[in-house]
Amino acid sequence: DAGVIQSPRHEVTEMGQEVTLRCKPISGHDYLFWYRQTMMRGLELLIYFNNNVPIDDSGMPEDRFSAKMPNASFSTLKIQPSEPRDSAVYFCASSLVGADYNEQFFGPGTRLTVL
Amino acid sequence: GQNIDQPTEMTATEGAIVQINCTYQTSGFNGLFWYQQHAGEAPTFLSYNVLDGLEEKGRFSSFLSRSKGYSYLLLKELQMKDSASYLCAVRVAGNNRKLIWGLGTSLAVNP
After folding, report:
1. Strand partners for A71
2. At B38, is the secondary structure helix, strand, or coil?
3. What's the pLDDT at A101?
4. What phi, psi does A109 have (nearest 5°)?
5. Cα A109-B106-B51 angle, rounded to 5 deg
6. What is the largest CA-CA distance in chain B?
7. DSSP A25
8. Is the Cβ pair B97, A102 closer than 8 Å?
9. What does the DSSP 8-state code read for residue A87?
């Protein structure tokens, strides 16, 4: 089985540009999480979905960030306009209710650099 | 507030045993996870504790004391490939899948 798939793996953009990150969760998983990781702040939960519905977006930094999950197999995280302080690794993770530990499975991440 | 503390860095020798501690102060508790993250890669699940005591999985064991807000990850027979960051995370509520994460402990295993 394929794991969580994210694209692109690397993104370099200039301040002010729109950035869209994409995620395909593991088939059958009903929770999807978006995280941001930096050296200073570690892993921060931005938003998570259950059955395609946003449950908690309290971690979304500001209105420049938005996330959607139009169906069970696809989610996007958009930053517009991007700023240098958004530079980080963005991870998508998915999990399944009823699994032994409900652990989260992470995608390979998107390394975003905003110049 | 929610707080998880781990040592920032640790070093150990190949073949030895190392214990990585994690203390937490959270508004609730419904399980503690340990994840391993190699440099440039994604975190991967190692262990889960929800009841007090020790859980053993091969060379790795994890311990939990809920009354003390304390957990540790024990790595035995260290190998070079165990050099990684180890992340402690707490699930605060049962019907909420949100995890609170520590900053991670960077472990260097030396020959």
Report:
1. A74
2. coil
3. 77
4. 90, 155
5. 85
6. 44
7. P
8. yes
9. -
A67 bridge partner residues: A77
Residue type, B50: V
- What residue has token string 């908690």? A56
pLDDT, tens digit, for every residue of B36-88?
999 999 999 999 999 999 999 999 999 999 999 999 999 999 999 999 999 99
Q: Answer whether B97 touches A (CB < 8 Å).
A: yes
Q: How many CB pairs under 8 A join A and B?
A: 47
A101 contacts on B by Cβ (under 8 Å): 31, 33, 45, 48
In whole angstroms, give the CA distance from residue B106 to residue B11. Answer: 8
Min distance A30 CA to chain B CA atoms (Å): 11
Task: Give yes or no for a cis peptide into A70 (omega within 30° of 0).
Answer: no
